[in-house]
Amino acid sequence: MDARLPAHLEAGAICRLAESQGGFATVLAKGERDAGTILLVMLCRGTGAVLYERMPQRDGSRLFVATNREDAEKKQEFSEYLARRRSQDADMWLIEVDIADPERFVVRLNDSR
């Protein structure tokens, strides 16, 4: 039996957790309701975007890991990368979270699994 939460419930929980910690989260793209992959764009005060996605670990768990960072000089490249990822996987959820300590937020998400 798969213990994974449906994607739409997990996306909602991520948004509520961000808001409960004084941040803001919005779903930029909705994917497949139950089994879509969730990617997070983490920001601090609207800057320093970092893309996190779940990656398999040696112990079999799947943790959010930073896979791409926005270059302040080339912000368009990050946006184009996100658009390409979305076109390759229509089932993908893309959630933007703007919070004071993005790394701590991701650690908390990983610990809750």
Account of the protein in words:
This protein has helices at 7-20, 75-88, 102-111, and strands at 24-29, 38-44, 47-56, 62-69, 93-98. The chain contains three helices and five strands, in the order H-E-E-E-E-H-E-H. Strand 3 (47-56) and strand 4 form a beta hairpin. The protein has a five-stranded mixed β-sheet with strand order 1-5-2-3-4, covered by helices on one side. The protein has one domain: Protein of unknown function (DUF1491) (hypothetical protein tt1805), CATH 3.40.1530.20. The mean pLDDT is 94. The protein has 113 residues and is α+β, with helices and mostly antiparallel strands.
Summary of the model, kept short:
This protein is α+β, with helices and mostly antiparallel strands. It is built from three helices and five strands.
Core attributes:
single chain, 113 residues, alpha+beta, hypothetical protein tt1805, five-stranded mixed β-sheet, 5 strands, 34% helix, 33% strand
Helix fraction bin: 25-40%
Strand portion, in percent? Answer: 25-35%
Principal-axis shape equals globular
Distance between the termini: 16 Å
Largest sheet: 5 strands, mixed
Rg (CA only): 14 Å
> What is the CATH H-level superfamily?
Protein of unknown function (DUF1491)
Low-confidence spans: pLDDT under 50, at least 5 residues? none
Element layout with pairings:
Layout: H1 7-20, E1 24-29, E2 38-44, E3 47-56, E4 62-69, H2 75-88, E5 93-98, H3 102-111
Parallel strand pairs: 2-5
Antiparallel strand pairs: 1-5, 2-3, 3-4
